[in-house]
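Researcher: Go.
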Amino acid sequence: MILTREEFIFLIVLILNLLVTLAYYLWNTVFVVSLKSAKNRKKTEEVSYENRRTYLIRSVIMLICPVIGPLFFFLSHLLYLVFFGSEVDLADVVFSKERVKIQLKADEERERNVVPLEEALSLNDKKNLRIAMMNMLKGDIKESLAPIAQALNAEDSESSHYASSVLRDQLNDFRITVQRLYQNAQADDSGTEYEKQMIDYMDGVLKQKVFSELEQKWFVHMMEETAGRIYEKKPSALTAQQYEGIFLRLLEIKDYEKCEKWCLRMAEQIPDELPSYTCKLKLYFATRNRESFFETFNALKKSDVVIDNETLELIRLFS
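Model: Structure:
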């Protein structure tokens, strides 16, 4: 039987494809898989790698698809080495859960059947109270300490137990964090970073009034002391929101002398900001200083300061 030129070339291609397939299969099953298996046994973690079954399937495909099969696996391996072969340097990558915001679709059916925690407490509704408590505990509870504290007096023992446990843990975390920030601030004589972090952190919890009266006063005075150190270093480092937060916490514990001191500091550092006027109005109203109240009130009406809805209602009330 005499083969034609085309048949001879085709036979050569089949033989070469068979040899390449056998070489590919033997090399990977005898050497590569054994080497990877030995490395894997030395590691504590399990490492995923291609086994002999994988290479057998690939070899069958290479036999069924001469030339195209080997070329496909060769090119795919080449692309893998080019784009994914080197290890990624993650030294400068920071993963933070706080920076990730997951947008979930609202469960309208569930939301329609959920009542606020305060309403469930007032109605003494055990079922809705427990649901409201669990929903609140699933989220960020740092801004919900006040309603959780209200649940301590709930008639439902399970709800009050949840509230007690959560509130105890959160307040302990607050004390530890404040102590750590205070020590860091004491060690940093020149900067104001730790002091500012401490003020913002303390204000977010103290404004919810979840501590006892004595402990609340102690933390507020610590916050005021920290703000005083910032003022001595760099008065402009304090923002209008921080000035206002310090004043309001002092006003809540009725320390009117220090309230007046921070009102003067605000008037000096942020004269064109709304808190400079509203804090004075609140102080003079609390101390019943009628003359100073209306003097500040008229100065606010004549100024170019942008006012909010609360202040607008105040102007309408006294005008």
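Model: The radius of gyration is 35 Å.
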